[in-house]
């Protein structure tokens, strides 16, 4: 009954799903809600590689707010592309960036992480493509990860000559533990799907996007006989200290980020990394 009235706020499409975007026009993030299950699919769609820029993050943030308000029954986060889940932060947001824009950008990333990591409903990352750095962070923020075989995932920041912030690190440590995280982070390790499965960085491996999506849907069935309140409150208790560590230090974290990326050697490294990306291709 409650679900019905909450869902009645969404426009109904013919195939039993409800689509919307917070701006009224679907752009970089498309949300569809299944009318039967109340499960929302949040599709990132910023070609070519879903790199995270201010506009995408702003849309994602307001989509998450809408889903929270509309009491969605669960979220599946996926990519429009079968090649890349998300290439992480758009390097152009850090390279030769203006102070005003970079401040908005980093604040939006913080906001998305806080909302996704703390979302009351169950969340699944359907990792249907490569997920380096910020792409990996989005996946780590969800409760469950299903990843298509023969892709890669990891926090590779040190390879770019930058340092993953504490909240990126905490997100990883909470899943694979301190020792594995230290090795992974200090070496900038990108795990194949198979390696990620072995260390518990992902929970399931899938053949392809369709298989990953149907495995993602299965996850929600675990909660069929669990009180949604008990589930959500337990998640909130478990995640509270990790979230609060950023919430209490947002300003400091922002200053540290801006300070770090403005360093001459960091700017030089980012410029070289961009150039190297343009020269290389990953199958
Ligand atoms: C002391 C306290 C410090 C506190 C804070 C300090 C520092 C802050 C830390 C900031 C954290 C940053 C996290 C990040 O997310 S950094 C971004 C890291 N991302 C990557 O390393 C991924 C790079 N990309 C790839 O590896 C590949 O593109 C791929 C994702 C595997 C996909 O490969 P493929 O399908 O072959 O596509 P292409 O490589 O051909 O790419 C197509 C196109 O897109 C451009 N591109 C790719 N990734 C990015 C990106 N992240 N940003 C901007 N542009 C990107 C690529 O250059 C191609 O462009 P062209 O078509 O123009 O050649």
UniProtKB/TrEMBL annotation:
Presence of the UniProt keyword Transit peptide in the record:
yes
Instruction: Write one Gene Ontology MF term.
Output: delta(3)-delta(2)-enoyl-CoA isomerase activity
Which biological process terms from the Gene Ontology are attached to this UniProt entry?
A: fatty acid beta-oxidation
Q: Which InterPro entries match?
A: ClpP/crotonase-like_dom_sf, Enoyl-CoA_hydra/iso
**Which keywords does this chain's UniProt record carry?**
Acetylation, Fatty acid metabolism, Isomerase, Lipid metabolism, Mitochondrion, Transit peptide
Task: State whether keyword Lipid metabolism applies.
Answer: yes
Q: Which reaction does it catalyse?
A: (2E)-tetradecenoyl-CoA = (3Z)-tetradecenoyl-CoA; (3Z)-decenoyl-CoA = (2E)-decenoyl-CoA; (3Z)-octenoyl-CoA = (2E)-octenoyl-CoA; (3Z)-dodecenoyl-CoA = (2E)-dodecenoyl-CoA
Q: Where is the signal peptide?
A: none
* Pathway(s) annotated for this protein in UniProt: Lipid metabolism; fatty acid beta-oxidation
- The superkingdom of the source organism is Eukaryota
In terms of one coarse class, where is the protein primarily found?
A: mitochondrion
Q: Where in the cell is it found?
A: Mitochondrion matrix
According to the record, the segments passing through the membrane are: none
Please give an example of a GO cellular component term from this record: mitochondrial matrix
Q: What does this protein do?
A: Key enzyme of fatty acid beta-oxidation. Able to isomerize both 3-cis (3Z) and 3-trans (3E) double bonds into the 2-trans (2E) form in a range of enoyl-CoA species, with a preference for (3Z)-enoyl-CoAs over (3E)-enoyl-CoAs. The catalytic efficiency of this enzyme is not affected by the fatty acyl chain length.
Indicate the quaternary assembly: Homotrimer.
| Name used for this protein in its record | Enoyl-CoA delta isomerase 1, mitochondrial
**Which organism's genome codes for this protein?**
Henosepilachna vigintioctopunctata
Lineage of origin? Eukaryota, Metazoa, Ecdysozoa, Arthropoda, Hexapoda
